[in-house]
Specification:
By secondary structure, the chain is α/β, with parallel strands linked by helices. The chain contains 9 helices and 14 strands.
């Protein structure tokens, strides 16, 4: 079993709520994975864990993760093959390799196949969190100051929403929902996709939890901006977001 340096877990490296991401962790060491999941969730990330390489590839190709953390030595499919096949499938999700293989050749192969970063076990959790932040910034083109749709401007880093000159701080879940909708305006986001984005594959999510968060968002930005597509999900209406509220 690989060693995780837990002594750094109390280091003041918590992310702001605007930097929460949905992470796929593919690691076959159960004890290590459980520890990592708990510590990443402590930073309010949504983390889904798999211990099988083929399942990891399937999830990476089919689900909208913000970032993946992969071991290399995995059952059924090696981590390098996951990276190669994912990139061939035009999956651009940032990938951090986390492995006991520390040889230069292994690192070069992983980076050449399309991995974004490479961290050798044993590792400090604070360093992994820092690398997650760095890779997320690069993949998001962190030079952007915010996302604007009509009169709405979302500042993910600060967790704030600007509307008609007024700024407010959003609760984390509302921020995640609005961030996803604003990144995909005029496109229907299914209920399942939004719930996975927020909660990951966790069980026990209350059946009306998403509706409650959507209700709170509508109270903030106006009930007409987020449309309900019956039986499917929700959509941010860019025309409604751009319309003059006084008309």
């Amino acid at each position: 079993m690989q060693t995780l340096k837990l002594g750094c877990q109390n280091s003041p490296t918590r992310l702001s709520k605007g930097n929460t991401v949905r992470i796929l962790l593919v690691e076959d060491d159960r004890m290590l994975a459980n520890t990592m999941v708990a510590m990443l969730k402590d930073d309010a990330h949504a983390v889904d864990w798999l211990d099988d390489g083929q399942q990891g590839l399937n999830a990476l190709v089919s689900d909208p993760f913000d970032l993946a953390v992969l071991d290399l030595t995995l059952p059924r499919l090696d981590g390098l093959e996951i990276v190669r096949r994912a990139r061939e499938a035009k999956v651009h999700t940032p990938i951090i390799i986390l492995t006991a293989r520390g040889e230069l050749d292994d690192k070069l192969q992983a980076l050449d196949q399309g991995a974004d970063d490479y961290l050798v076990k044993p590792f400090a959790m604070a360093e992994l969190k820092a690398r997650i932040r760095a890779v997320s910034r690069r993949s998001a083109g962190q030079a952007e100051s915010g996302i604007t749709v009509g009169r709405l401007t979302l500042m993910p880093d600060q967790g704030t929403l600007e509307l008609d000159g007024n700024s407010s701080v959003l609760p984390r879940t509302e921020l995640q929902i609005l961030h996803y909708l604003m990144r995909n305006p005029d496109r229907v986001a299914t209920r399942r996709r939004l719930e996975d984005q927020i909660y990951g594959w966790e069980q026990g999510v209350e059946s009306n939890a998403l509706e409650v968060h959507i209700h709170h968002l509508r109270r903030r930005i106006g009930k007409n901006l987020i449309r309900t597509v019956r039986g499917v999900g929700y959509m941010l209406d860019s025309q409604a977001a751009a319309a003059d509220p006084c008309i």
